[in-house]
């Protein structure tokens, strides 16, 4: 086959049906083509969808090749050339995640390379792997924590049939451990050796919460919290996956696996919550809540078989029962005019670069993104479950630079906040929520926050 008929990144191969083929990498799209009898490659039209992996339904005309595979290079998991004796054919393996719409699956293709093309194939494999990972470390060491009763109780099955095959196809080393009791993941995170590139959790947000609190409780917490924690959406609540992967892809397990395999680190803020009077410290992420927002989660644990629908049921049940809880909140108000706050927020968005929503976690490394991460958070459910009688005081974790101690040492000890007269106090009365008169809309004359009663969500 003449090299003049092939592009600079094309490798001739023998397909599974003993027909001649071509491996092509163009515009970050990897294609496997079946050549016609004359062996020529003519320009072919681009794939109808960059996420497709379907045999071409068009009949070959003249020298037009048949497209057997087409996928974005970022979805490639691994390309490898098997060892063999000199002068013999070598097997070339391609593993990738294939997506069409909301359907994703693992694809593995095996082809043969003629002895004369082996040197070029070795260079091609190296170039393709560099293009697929673009600075991310391949073949990662992964600690995979699985909550077998997470979600509808299908976490173990999803991990065995979907997650593990993808991680193994990518050449990752996986240490799989199943949790057996509440806070088991926290115990594991607190005791493990820091030898993993990634800690992955197959469950909902609760397992992430346990891992973060386990890492934060270590004597080397600052170093431990630099280990990326990556969720796999197999639980009832997968809010962190929504933030990382977006509202359209958050529940696609293969996409979450790609994030484990080649994702880039993103910093996340954590909130330090001190429970009084026990002085118990917990770390919160995403949100801290009380009242109804906790009851619809913890109060529906026995309804896990319902999946996400249990939260809707818990919410409606809470509205009907109108359960009342006494609540006192003290806060130091930095800004009180909500109109001015919204204006400043919009102005800040226009003048700063976002490193959160909208950034593809498996995109090439962004050198502008900070590499230090020191924040973690806790779910609304766990705050109530671990709470004690008394008040809940919350503060923000110092970001590492402004705290005393070794950079890889423990986190600073919690300090109870001491409210003074400048702090605002909001206290419920246990009665029904007062209805504001028409025109008041719950705001003061200058858009100031005002006291409320019957608080059910903060």
TrEMBL record:
This protein's GO cellular component annotations are: cytoplasm; membrane
Please list where the region (Disordered) is annotated: 37-63, 348-376, 430-453
The UniProt record lists the DAGKc domain at 137-277
- Domain of life where this protein originates: Eukaryota
Q: Where is the composition biased (Polar residues)?
A: 363-376
- What's a single GO MF annotation on this record? phosphotransferase activity, alcohol group as acceptor
Bias (Low complexity) ranges? 47-56
InterPro entries on file = ATP-NAD_kinase_N, Diacylglycerol_kinase_cat_dom, Lipid_Phosphate_FormReg, NAD/diacylglycerol_kinase_sf
Q: Which GO terms describe its biological process?
A: sphingosine biosynthetic process
PROSITE patterns recorded for this chain?
DAGK
Check the record and name the PANTHER family matching this protein.
Answer: ACYLGLYCEROL KINASE, MITOCHONDRIAL (PTHR12358:SF31), SPHINGOSINE KINASE (PTHR12358)
Name this protein carries in UniProt: DAGKc domain-containing protein
């Amino acid at each position: 086959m003449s090299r003049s008929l092939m592009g600079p990144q094309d490798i001739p191969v023998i397909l599974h049906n003993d027909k001649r083929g071509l491996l092509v990498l163009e515009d970050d799209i990897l294609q496997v083509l079946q050549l016609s009898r004359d062996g020529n490659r003519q320009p072919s039209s681009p794939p109808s969808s960059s996420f497709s992996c379907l045999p071409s339904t068009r009949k070959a005309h003249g020298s037009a090749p048949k497209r057997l595979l087409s996928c974005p290079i970022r979805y490639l998991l691994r390309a490898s050339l098997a060892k063999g004796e000199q002068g013999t054919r070598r097997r070339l393996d391609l593993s990738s995640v294939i997506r069409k719409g909301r359907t994703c699956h693992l694809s593995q293709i095996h082809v043969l390379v003629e002895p004369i093309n082996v040197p070029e194939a070795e260079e091609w494999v190296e170039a393709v792997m560099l293009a697929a990972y673009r600075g991310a470390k391949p073949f990662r060491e992964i600690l995979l924590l699985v909550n077998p009763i997470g979600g509808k109780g299908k976490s173990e099955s999803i991990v065995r049939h979907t997650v593990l095959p993808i991680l193994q196809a990518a050449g990752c080393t996986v240490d799989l451990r199943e949790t057996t009791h509440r806070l088991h993941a926290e115990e594991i995170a607190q005791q493990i050796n820091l030898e993993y590139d990634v800690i992955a959790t197959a469950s909902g947000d609760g397992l992430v919460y346990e891992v973060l609190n386990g890492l934060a409780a270590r004597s080397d917490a600052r170093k431990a919290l630099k280990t990326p924690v990556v969720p796999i959406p197999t639980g009832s609540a997968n809010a962190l996956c929504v933030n990382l992967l977006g509202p359209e892809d958050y529940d696609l397990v293969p996409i979450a696996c790609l994030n484990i395999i080649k994702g880039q680190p993103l910093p996340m803020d954590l909130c330090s919550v001190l429970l009084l009077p026990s002085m118990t410290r917990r770390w919160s992420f995403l949100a801290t809540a009380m009242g109804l927002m906790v009851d619809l989660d913890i109060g529906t644990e026995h309804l896990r078989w319902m999946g996400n629908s249990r939260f809707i049921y818990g919410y409606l049940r809470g509205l009907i029962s109108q359960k009342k809880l006494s609540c006192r909140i003290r806060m130091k108000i930095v800004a009180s005019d909500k109109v001015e706050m919204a204006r400043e927020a919009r102005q800040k968005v226009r003048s700063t670069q976002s490193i959160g929503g909208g950034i593809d976690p498996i995109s090439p490394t962004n050198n502008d993104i900070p590499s230090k991460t020191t924040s973690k958070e806790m779910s609304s459910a766990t705050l109530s479950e671990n709470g004690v009688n008394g008040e809940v005081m919350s503060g923000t974790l110092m970001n590492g630079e402004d705290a005393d101690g070794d950079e890889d040492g423990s986190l600073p000890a919690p300090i109870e906040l001491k409210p003074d007269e400048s702090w605002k106090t909001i206290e419920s009365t246990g009665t029904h929520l007062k209805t504001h008169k028409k025109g008041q809309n719950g705001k003061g004359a200058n858009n100031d926050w005002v006291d409320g009663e019957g608080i059910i969500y903060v």
